[in-house]
């Protein structure tokens, strides 16, 4: 500070020289506003800088002179010899005051008063009317200690706030320094991309600040933008005293009502109707998209795009309404397991996880029967009697575990028991006996296990009350397949059986990928599709006739759908291969053309086509034609099986 | 990276650059001293015209007096805002008059904020910190 004081004294002396020369020139050219301006600025700087560096007396003295020269400058006063002489005397007085401050000589305060009195007489204003000199404002008092209070702050800057050099983010950062701050951005005012001006600010913020600071300190943060924003500051606790009255621009808005979770009951029928209507809408939207693309009219295209976006949102929304957690279904089995345990004289504990997994209501409704059947089978055939369990060193209380988990667009539901597992030899013998397989057939263990799902299959020695009424696992399998799901049985001898149901999340509408093979369209479920790769003629040649695609160093076998479906297609120069994920690993499906994604409303094929396993349904395209929805799992499974058979036959 | 040196060397790209425009050398010295001490890099100009001549490199912020010869603060703010390169930078005006009219005139010209003279070094720093961090 001492340094600055010295700098000011040097500067002030220079300014006084400037003032003197200006005054002397003014004496010759009384009307020259340029010269008046020079004198004014010299005094202005002496005043301003004087106050900055602790020369209050000089600042106050210069302030009165400056006011006089301001009037002169504005033409409210004319320069007279008296005034100029007085000003010269004042300059001398300032010089003396500077000297006194520097420890050289003294300045007579009475002389200052005399000059000012004469000045006021000359310019015709009593000293009382002189504008007061602002004094150096004290730094704001330190944050008072006390319990922190919560303030709700609403801040919506004017759109052009950025053009004034204000960065709203910095204001939020400054608020954060006052205490704990929770910030929520209000993005509702952001226009569509085409209308966005990057130099404008479309955001607003809602904040809750917990601070010990005064509300005026909060308001102070926004002082530079006070007139260019909507600002509300109110305590979250209404009983607390209100902060300073808001400025006119900052009308306080009522606090938003606390959100309450409420629900309404709607009949399932209405939901089904809604989903049906959404399905129709999606079909119509596809048609609109098709028409718009054909017209190539940007106006229609933009409407079509908007409609597509809305339908997609509407679809997701209405689907989510139908989603229900599995828990109630799972919980119902506790009673079943208990009752069966009593009947069979077996102690069984039911455990479960993933019961909060959500599934389409229709799927859940149709899931009950298959699950009951599987659990009955486990209780009856899988789980041993207490004595047998003890004998094989297992805990006497058996466990059945129900689990559910998401896997892509599917939900996996597993029922596992810790029973004896399937007797592979018995299954095989039974299958031979029932004529399901040839006695010489070479089957892997997994294939034998899958035989229990064959129609009419039952290994139970005698028909019990619990299971084995002629409806076996094949009924379960058919039910699950009716839900477009798959069923898989795994067995570990002595350790138990796990039945896995893979079910689609929803039955009505899925995201699909529209592809073309020859002149037919197909849909591949997007949930299974991993990526789309292109094979050049060179790539195909390198594979030496093998249907293998090199996807970043990984070999992916692929199936040419055209050949597979016996459709007449020319092999294109470039093979479009969709890589799909199946239970058997990643496989490719080669198509002629990939057309794009498609919101697919699933229609059943009808009773006649129930045995068609490669296709899980159909959908209607925008132009009214039908596209079949391919089940990649089945296609791959089938291909693996037929290849295996071919190999076997060749052997 | 040597942060110490970075903040003490003038014009080093790491430090934020502030242009201070004032016809009072002592105020400029005080502003420069305070800001350099806080790690900013400072360019000085004695009036608006001088300032425009020194703006051949990007600056992060401008602190300008209003009453100056040749080109006053309001004029400087107007010409800065007219230049795309300085459209969005914070500009703070130093005013001795705390009267609304002068302040409004400055705001309309495009000033971001103001500091009323006389001010303390803390007040100066808090405003700079508020605007450019």
Q: Which structural class do you get from the secondary structure elements of chain A?
A: alpha+beta
- Largest interface in this structure: A-B, 39 and 38 residues
H and E order of chain B: HEHEHEHEHEH
Number of helices of chain A: 18
* Beta-strand proportion of chain B: 15-25%
Oligomer state equals heterodimer
Q: How many strands, which pairing sense, and closed or not: the largest β-sheet of chain B? A: 5 strands, parallel
Categorize the overall geometry of chain B: globular
CATH architecture of chain B: 3-Layer(aba) Sandwich
Distance from first to last alpha carbon of chain A: 101 Å
CATH topology of chain B: Rossmann fold
List the helices and strands and how they pair.
The complex is a heterodimer of chains A (651) and B (133).
Chain A: H1 2-28, H2 33-52, H3 56-73, H4 81-101, H5 109-123, E1 149-157, H6 168-178, E2 179-186, E3 204-211, H7 215-221, E4 229-235, H8 268-295, H9 298-321, E5 323-325, H10 327-344, E6 348-353, E7 358-360, H11 361-382, H12 386-391, E8 398-407, E9 410-417, H13 424-433, H14 445-450, H15 473-482, E10 486-492, E11 496-504, E12 509-517, E13 520-525, E14 529-535, H16 537-542, E15 548-551, E16 554-560, H17 561-564, E17 575-582, E18 585-591, E19 593-601, E20 615-620, E21 626-630, H18 632-650
Parallel strand pairs in A: 6-8, 13-21, 16-18
Antiparallel strand pairs in A: 1-3, 1-4, 2-3, 5-7, 8-9, 9-11, 10-11, 12-13, 12-19, 14-17, 15-16, 17-18, 20-21
Helix pairs in contact in A: 1-2, 1-4, 2-3, 3-4, 3-5, 4-5, 8-9, 10-11, 11-15
Chain B: H1 3-8, E1 17-21, H2 25-37, E2 41-45, H3 48-53, E3 61-65, H4 73-82, E4 91-95, H5 100-109, E5 113-116, H6 121-132
Parallel strand pairs in B: 1-2, 1-3, 3-4, 4-5
Could you name the key traits of this structure?
heterodimer, A: 651 residues, alpha+beta, Four Helix Bundle (Hemerythrin (Met), subunit A), Alpha-Beta Plaits, five-stranded mixed beta sheet, 18 helices, 21 strands, 42% helix, 22% strand, elongated, B: 133 residues, alpha/beta, Rossmann fold, five-stranded parallel beta sheet, 6 helices, 5 strands, globular, disordered N terminus
């Amino acid at each position: 500070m001492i340094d600055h004081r010295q700098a000011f004294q040097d500067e002030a002396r220079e300014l006084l020289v400037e003032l003197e020369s200006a005054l002397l020139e003014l004496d010759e050219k009384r009307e020259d506003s340029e010269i008046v301006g020079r004198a004014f600025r010299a005094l202005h700087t002496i005043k301003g800088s004087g106050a900055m560096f602790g020369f209050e007396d000089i600042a106050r003295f210069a302030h009165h002179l400056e006011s006089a020269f301001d009037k002169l400058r504005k033409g409210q006063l004319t320069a007279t010899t008296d005034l100029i002489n007085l000003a010269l005397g004042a300059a001398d007085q300032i010089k003396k005051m500077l000297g006194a401050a520097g420890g050289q000589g003294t300045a007579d305060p009475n002389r200052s008063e005399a000059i000012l009195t004469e000045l006021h007489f000359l310019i015709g204003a009593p000293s009382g009317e002189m504008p007061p000199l602002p004094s150096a404002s004290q730094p704001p008092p330190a944050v008072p200690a006390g319990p922190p209070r919560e303030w709700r702050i609403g801040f919506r800057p004017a759109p052009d706030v950025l053009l004034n050099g204000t960065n709203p983010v910095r204001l939020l950062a400054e608020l954060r320094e006052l205490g704990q701050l929770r910030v929520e951005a209000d993005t509702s005012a952001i226009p569509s991309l085409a209308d966005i001006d990057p130099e404008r600010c479309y955001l607003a913020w809602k904040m809750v600040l917990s601070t010990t600071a005064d509300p005026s300190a909060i308001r102070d943060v926004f002082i530079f933008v006070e007139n260019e924003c909507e600002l509300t500051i109110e305590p979250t606790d209404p009983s607390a005293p209100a902060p300073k009255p808001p400025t006119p621009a900052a009308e306080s808005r009522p606090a938003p009502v606390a959100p309450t979770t409420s629900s309404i009951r709607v009949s399932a029928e209405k939901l089904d109707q809604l989903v049906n209507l959404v399905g129709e809408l999606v079909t119509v939207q596809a048609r609109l998209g098709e028409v718009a693309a054909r017209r190539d009219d940007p106006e229609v295209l933009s409407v079509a795009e908007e409609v597509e976006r809305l339908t997609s949102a509407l679809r997701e929304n209405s689907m989510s309404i139908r989603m229900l957690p599995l828990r109630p279904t799972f919980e119902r089995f506790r009673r079943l397991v208990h009752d069966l345990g009593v009947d069979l004289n077996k102690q069984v504990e039911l455990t479960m996880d993933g019961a909060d997994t959500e599934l389409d209501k229709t799927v859940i409704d149709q899931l009950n029967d298959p699950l009951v059947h599987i659990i009955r089978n486990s209780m009856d055939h899988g789980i041993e009697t207490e004595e047998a369990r003890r004998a094989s060193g297992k805990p006497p209380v058996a466990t059945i575990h129900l689990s559910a988990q998401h896997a892509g667009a599917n939900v996996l539901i597993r029922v596992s028991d810790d029973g004896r597992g399937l007797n592979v030899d018995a299954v095989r013998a039974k299958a031979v006996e029932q004529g399901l397989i040839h006695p010489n057939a070479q089957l892997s263990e997994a294939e034998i296990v899958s035989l229990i799902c064959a129609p009419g299959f039952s290994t139970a020695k005698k028909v019990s009350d619990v299971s084995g009424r002629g409806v076996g696992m094949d009924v379960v399998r058919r039910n699950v397949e009716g839900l477009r799901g798959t069923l898989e049985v795994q067995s570990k001898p002595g350790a138990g059986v796990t039945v896995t149901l893979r079910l689609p999340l929803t039955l009505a509408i899925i995201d699909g990928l529209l592809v073309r093979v020859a002149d037919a369209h197909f849909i591949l479920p997007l949930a299974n599709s991993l990526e789309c790769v292109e094979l050049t003629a060179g790539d195909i040649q390198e594979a030496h006739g093998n249907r293998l695609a090199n996807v970043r160093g990984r070999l992916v076998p692929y199936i040419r759908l055209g050949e597979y479906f016996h459709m007449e297609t020319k092999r294109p120069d470039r093979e479009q291969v969709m890589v799909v994920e199946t239970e058997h690993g990643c496989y490719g499906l080669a198509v002629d053309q990939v057309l794009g994604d498609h919101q697919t409303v699933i229609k059943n094929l009808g009773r006649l086509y129930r045995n068609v396993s490669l296709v899980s349904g159909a959908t209607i395209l925008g132009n009214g034609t039908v596209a079949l929805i391919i089940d990649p799992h089945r296609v791959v499974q089938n291909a693996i099986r037929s290849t295996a058979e071919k190999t076997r036959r060749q052997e | 990276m040597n942060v110490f040196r970075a903040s003490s060397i003038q014009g080093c790209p790491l430090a934020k650059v502030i242009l201070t425009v004032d016809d009072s050398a002592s105020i400029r010295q005080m502003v420069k001293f305070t800001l350099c001490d806080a790690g900013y890099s400072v360019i000085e100009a004695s009036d608006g015209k001088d300032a425009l001549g020194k703006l051949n490199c990007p600056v992060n912020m401008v602190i300008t007096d209003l009453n100056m010869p040749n080109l006053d603060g309001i004029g400087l703010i107007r010409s800065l805002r007219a230049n795309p390169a300085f459209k969005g930078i914070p500009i703070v005006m130093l005013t001795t008059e705390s009267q609304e009219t002068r302040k409004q005139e400055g705001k309309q010209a495009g000033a971001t904020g103001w500091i009323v003279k006389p001010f303390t070094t803390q007040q100066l720093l808090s405003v700079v910190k508020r605007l450019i961090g």
